[in-house]
């Protein structure tokens, strides 16, 4: 039985650092898996019990120059509110109190002293610079050696150490000291930029209050929010944040759900309505019954998704990771050639070419390139999460950016998903109420929106007892009443069962051409027709317009009948396919995929297979209802203009990545050439590297502030 341990790693601000730790820990005996995340700073290791002690892992990470702290675990299940987790949600230490900050301050001070001495006492020579260089270089060199011992010969620390030592040997002490200082500054800036990105997720996790007022035997007690269990009743005072996902028992008032869904307008919530942990109760005191424990409330699931999303790598990122793996060794080989060939073959001066070779080594850091993708992806994920758009990682973002067709489910996606019974036509002349209660009794077991509408219509009436309810997916529901099978289903299915006469079918057609959905209540013959109307969403038309302007083709897929589908498709002027059974929806998606990547948008309740089949499956709904886990992406705001917003966010993320890769590769390319021809030297080489890393990270951070709904809507 393997052991799993979790740590918080500090001082790790770039993917190559993460890769180094992962490689070094992975080499220890008995290690099975190593997961590491720059954004959440978490290291998770599973190991064969006792082969490697947690302490061994800790000392290995420390030797590489990082801080490490265990995260307590309760019974192997990560406890959401342990103490170390509190640290994870704490702000990073101010820069001047980190190891990297100390190195910058130390090298800056020594360098200033050296320059001062050089000005005042020109005779003092090079030694103050040598001291400044070595003081900064020693910690870097120690990390380089630790990396080599851990099986990672090529690290940026190793390249730095060789370059700076070499520069000392050829008498360029002043430059060597400057290079060490600039390297330290670069590392620091990198850390500052990444900690900005971390603020995004921290903002999410600090939303849920730490304590709650629990009602117990008519008394109130303050308890930790993490201790609440489903069934507990809590009181939420006006102005307080709701401590758990739950259902309102009493009290009606405005609730601001923006922390969870990004929706800034407060919504009125009353008895029976669901509420989310983290939402703000604006008006009156609410009594709320807890429905989910802290670990799986909506916001905890969102945070988990965003954290795990880092592991789902975009194809672009996989390519860059592969590229950077041979980039560093290739640069080392190239510098060796630059040092050796001109003097040996063409009789050039050694001093010139050794200097150029050393400068070239400094270009070997792939940091800017490597960080460009995850920084952009992380920023986009957090920007999305803040606005109720969830995507499960880089692969999903990259696929979303390339979408050519968007298939939209009708019920609950293009319509409100809250149909209402408008007509009850009794075919045998008995009273409408009788048909209604029988239909409601059969539908009671179903969670289909049509079923719920019928049950709602019969509220307050006495329902006859029925047994053995079972759903016929995409068709209807049947149950046994009084020894007879009673079914509520689509006219088509009723027809196939031989229960619908042609006169009744004609009556159904009339209702359908009014845009209504008709279901038939029948035994061996039809008893009644029930007409239901589901209003299109107000933003449906705008969504279709925005999708078109993005160059994406919308298409409606529905299980409903042709005429109802035609009514809404005509209104929105889109293609449609109707009367699809769930597996036919899946088949249609497969066919659409031949034209290019397809996004499927649905409520995730009865179209899970189609969501799975699509290149990107998007679940839509409001908060707790959303089947987050079944889809690649989810929209929490119950607003479908968020679908084009999602595509715009993905596209601008990929655009950002392209810019970053161009900046990183462009600068490397330029300095590769200028270094070889001798135009630029050591310190400009390191500036180019640091500059590129910072530029790329800052560019990625721009995404953090985007509001996907407001992103430029390209014509
Ligand atoms: N519980 C039910 N009660 C009555 N009729 C049902 C039920 N479930 C399905 N049907 C019938 O089958 C048809 C197709 O159902 P399905 O669930 O596949 O699609 P839908 O969810 O209504 O629409 P969409 O595909 O647009 O989401 C419905 O229009 C209805 O006529
Ligand atoms: Zn780095």
The proportion of strand residues reads 15-25%
> What is the overall silhouette?
elongated
Parts with pLDDT < 50 across at least 5 consecutive residues: 74-89
What is the alpha-carbon Rg in Å? 32 Å
Q: What is the first-to-last residue Cα distance?
A: 57 Å
Structural class: alpha+beta
Question: How much helix, percentage-wise, in residues?
Answer: 40-55%
Task: Determine the oligomeric state from the structure.
Answer: single chain
Model description:
By secondary structure, the chain is α+β, with helices and mostly antiparallel strands. Among the domains are: 3-50 and 66-79, Alpha-Beta Plaits; 99-201 and 308-376 and 652-710, no CATH class; 211-295, Calcium-transporting ATPase, cytoplasmic transduction domain A, CATH 2.70.150.10; 420-533, Calcium-transporting ATPase, cytoplasmic domain N. Helices cover 49% and strands 18% of the residues. The chain contains 24 helices and 26 strands. The strands form 5 sheets. The protein has a 7-stranded mixed sheet, with helices on both faces. A 6-stranded antiparallel sheet has the order 6-5-7-13-8-11, with no helix packed on it. Helix 22 (608-613) links the parallel strand 24 and strand 25. The longest helix has 35 residues, at 642-676. The protein is elongated and about 115 Å long. The model is unreliable at 74-89 (pLDDT under 50). Residues 14, 16-17, 156, 367 line the site of zinc ion (ZN). Residues 14, 16-17, 156, 367 line the site of zinc ion.
């Amino acid at each position: 039985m393997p052991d799993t341990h979790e740590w918080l790693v500090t001082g790790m601000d770039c993917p190559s650092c993460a890769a180094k730790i992962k490689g070094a820990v992975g080499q220890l005996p008995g290690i099975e898996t190593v997961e590491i995340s720059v954004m959440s700073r978490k290291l998770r290791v599973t190991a064969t019990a006792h082969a490697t002690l947690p302490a061994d892992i800790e000392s290995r990470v420390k030797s590489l120059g990082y801080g490490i702290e265990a995260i307590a675990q309760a019974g192997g299940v990560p406890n959401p509110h342990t103490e170390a987790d509190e640290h994870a949600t704490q702000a990073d230490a101010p820069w001047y109190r980190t190891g990297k900050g100390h190195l910058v301050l130390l090298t800056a001070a020594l360098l200033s002293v050296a320059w001062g001495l050089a000005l005042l006492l020109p005779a003092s020579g090079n030694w103050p610079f040598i001291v400044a260089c070595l003081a900064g270089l020693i910690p870097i060199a120690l990390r380089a050696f630790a990396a080599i011992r851990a099986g990672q010969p090529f690290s940026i620390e190793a390249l730095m150490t060789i370059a700076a030592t070499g520069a000392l040997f050829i008498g360029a002490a002043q430059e060597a000291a400057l290079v060490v200082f600039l390297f330290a500054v670069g590392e620091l800036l990198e850390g500052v930029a990444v900690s900005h990105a971390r603020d995004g997720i921290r903002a999410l996790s600090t939303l849920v209050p730490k304590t709650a007022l629990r009602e117990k035997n008519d008394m109130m007690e303050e308890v930790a929010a993490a201790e609440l269990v489903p069934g507990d009743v809590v009181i939420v005072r006006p102005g307080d944040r709701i401590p758990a996902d739950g259902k309102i028992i009493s009290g009606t008032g405005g609730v601001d759900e923006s922390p969870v869904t990004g929706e800034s307008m407060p919504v009125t919530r009353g008895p029976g309505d669901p509420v989310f942990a983290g939402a703000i109760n604006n008006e009156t005191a609410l009594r709320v019954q807890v429905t989910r424990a802290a670990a799986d409330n909506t916001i905890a699931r969102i945070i988990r998704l965003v954290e795990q999303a880092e592991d789902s790598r975009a194809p672009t990122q996989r390519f860059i990771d592969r590229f950077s793996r041979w980039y560093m060794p290739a640069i080392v080989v190239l510098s060796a050639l630059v040092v050796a060939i001109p003097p040996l073959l063409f009789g050039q001066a050694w001093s010139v070419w050794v200097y150029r070779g050393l400068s070239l080594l400094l270009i070997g850091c792939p940091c800017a390139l490597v960080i460009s993708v995850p920084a952009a992806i992380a920023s986009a994920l957090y920007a999305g999460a803040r606005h109720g758009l969830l995507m499960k990682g880089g692969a999903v973002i990259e696929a979303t950016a390339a979408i050519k067709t968007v298939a939209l489910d009708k019920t609950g996606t293009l319509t409100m998903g809250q149909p209402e019974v408008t007509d009850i036509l009794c075919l045998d002349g008995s009273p409408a109420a009788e048909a209604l209660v029988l239909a409601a009794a059969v539908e009671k077991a179903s969670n289909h929106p049509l079923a719920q509408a019928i049950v709602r219509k019969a509220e307050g009436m006495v329902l006859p007892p029925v047994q053995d309810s079972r759903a016929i997916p995409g068709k209807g529901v049947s149950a046994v009443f009084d020894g007879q099978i009673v079914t509520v289903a689509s006219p088509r299915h009723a027809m196939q069962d031989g229960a619908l006469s042609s006169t009744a079918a004609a009556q159904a057609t009339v209702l359908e051409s009014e845009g209504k959905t008709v279901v038939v209540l029948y035994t061996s013959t039809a008893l009644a027709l029930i007409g239901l109307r589901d209003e299109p969403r107000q933003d449906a038309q705008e969504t279709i317009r925005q999708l078109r302007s993005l160059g994406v083709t919308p298409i409606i897929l529905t299980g409903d009948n042709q005429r109802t589908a035609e009514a809404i498709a005509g209104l929105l002027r889109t293609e449609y396919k109707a009367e699809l059974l769930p597996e036919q929806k899946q088949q249609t998606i497969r066919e659409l995929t031949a034209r290019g990547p397809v996004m499927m948008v649905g409520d995730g309740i009865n179209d899970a297979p189609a969501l799975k089949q699509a290149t990107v499956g998007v679940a839509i709904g409001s908060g707790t209802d959303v089947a987050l886990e079944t889809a690649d992406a989810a929209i929490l705001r119950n607003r479908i203009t968020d679908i084009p917003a999602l595509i715009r966010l993905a596209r601008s993320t990929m655009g950002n990545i392209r810019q970053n890769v161009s900046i990183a590769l462009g600068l490397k390319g330029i300095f590769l050439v200028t270094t070889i021809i001798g135009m630029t030297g050591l310190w400009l080489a390191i500036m180019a590297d640091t500059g590129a890393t910072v530029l790329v990270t800052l560019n990625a951070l721009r995404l953090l502030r985007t509001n996907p709904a407001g992103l430029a809507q390209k014509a």
